[in-house]
């Protein structure tokens, strides 16, 4: 519920700031002086609709985009001890947090990095870089995953 409220508040704040900015800079007067009849309230409604739609769209494709942009390989059957340990650790952490087991993946990068994404905490993706698994101790990786 809190996520939805924050989502709505953020989008409404953007519309409010756009409204204040357009009013302060006299955008309506400038447009009228140049023969353009623009109703700012209609423009703000238009912006709000597209802003909300764009936010929802990006939220729903976030998992797919993250997989594609990082080259994340989802672990369906662990092939190495690192993969086995990673799946078991994420399963344990998700169980302790009371959420559904997310998809787990590894992406090819030397840098130590990790991310979690998804439109819903029960339909998520957790991915770590190969560099994180190779260069950090299990306790350090577990701390990153728990975060």
TrEMBL record:
Transmembrane stretches, start-end: 43-61
A Pfam family annotated for this UniProt entry: Peptidase_M48
Highest taxon listed in the record's lineage: Bacteria
An example Gene Ontology molecular-function term: metalloendopeptidase activity
InterPro entries to which the protein is assigned, alphabetical: HtpX_protease, Peptidase_M48
Gene Ontology CC entries for this record: plasma membrane
Membrane topology annotation: Multi-pass membrane protein
Entry keyword Ligase: no
First-listed, main subcellular location of the protein, grouped into a coarse class: membrane
EC number(s) given by UniProt: 3.4.24.-
Any one GO BP annotation for this protein: proteolysis
Localization per record: Cell membrane
Entry note: cofactor: Binds 1 zinc ion per subunit.
Residue ranges of domain Peptidase M48 in the record: 82-147
Annotated keywords: Cell membrane, Hydrolase, Membrane, Metal-binding, Metalloprotease, Protease, Transmembrane, Transmembrane helix, Zinc
Essential cofactor(s): Zn(2+)
UniProt similarity note: Belongs to the peptidase M48 family.
The name this protein goes by in its record: M48 family metalloprotease
């Amino acid at each position: 519920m809190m996520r939805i409220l924050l989502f709505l508040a953020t989008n409404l704040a953007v519309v409010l700031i756009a409204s204040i900015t357009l009013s302060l800079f006299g955008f309506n007067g400038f447009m009228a002086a140049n023969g353009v009849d623009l109703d700012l309230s209609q423009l703000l409604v238009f912006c709000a609709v597209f802003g909300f739609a764009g936010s929802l769209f990006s939220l729903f494709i976030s998992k797919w985009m993250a997989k594609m942009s990082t080259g994340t390989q989802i672990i369906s059957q662990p092939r190495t001890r690192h993969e086995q340990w990673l799946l078991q650790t994420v399963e344990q952490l998700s169980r302790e947090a009371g959420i559904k087991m997310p998809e787990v993946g590894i992406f090819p990068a030397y840098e130590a990095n990790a991310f979690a994404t998804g439109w819903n905490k029960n339909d998520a993706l957790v991915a770590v870089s190969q560099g994180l698994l190779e260069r950090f101790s299990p306790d350090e990786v577990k701390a990153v995953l728990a975060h």
